[in-house]
Design a protein that fits this description.
mainly alpha; rod-shaped
Length: 206
């Protein structure tokens, strides 16, 4: 084989190696975009559930403290938490990425809020016993909402973990394939260089 043909073959393999590496880079970039898509809306939804649970528990504690100790500082805490919860829920409801299961829980939480506000209205009339009685009827409802929120949070977590695991597996397979192909092509290039050198020596002797 002439030296020109050796060089052509060598160049073709070098181009092939570059194309393989470029293909891997493109695939890796696409995979990173998928990971960002998972980390974006899904993690936002997961965080939103955490915050809703927090505000739900804190407001219930504020009502319980208000009725137990007749201390209006708990009332201020309730209204402060309610305002933050309202802003959060409005943001979640306005997000097209929010799953319907979470929207349903927001609706049910809104019903609980109405009952909580009724407890405070009764409290303001001075009927502490009636306010306490109504608040006690809301306990099971709040607990059910919290349990459903925890279940939804767990489902979101498992879904995120499953997708991230699958994506990581794709990355590992792509890396292994790239390394294997790169090693093979490099080995072929080394052999070609050796053969070219050997052919050149033979040509020089002739």
């Amino acid at each position: 084989m002439s030296q020109r043909k050796w060089l052509a073959l060598f160049g073709a393999l070098a181009i092939l190696l570059v194309l393989v590496i470029a293909s891997f880079i493109v695939q890796l970039r696409n995979t990173n975009e998928r990971i960002e898509a998972i980390h974006g809306p899904r993690l936002d939804s997961y965080q939103a559930i955490e915050e809703i649970m927090y505000y739900n528990i804190e407001r219930a504690n504020a009502i319980r403290g208000l009725l137990a100790y007749d201390d209006r500082r708990f009332l201020e805490a309730y209204y402060s938490m309610s305002q933050r919860a309202k802003e959060l829920k409005a943001s979640i409801a306005g997000d097209p990425e929010t799953p319907s299961s979470l929207l349903d829980l927001l609706y049910r939480d809104g019903i609980w809020e109405q009952e909580a506000d009724r407890v405070l209205v009764i409290y303001e009339t001075g009927d502490l016993a009636e306010a306490t009685a109504v608040a006690e009827t809301m306990t099971d409802q709040r607990q059910t909402i919290l349990e459903d929120l925890r279940s939804l949070k767990k489902m979101q977590y498992n879904d995120i973990r499953k997708q991230l695991t699958a994506t990581q597996r794709e990355i590992d397979i792509a890396i292994q394939a790239l390394i294997s192909v790169a090693i093979l092509l490099i080995a072929i290039l080394v052999i070609l260089i050796f053969l070219m050198a050997k052919t050149k020596k033979r040509t020089d002797r002739d």
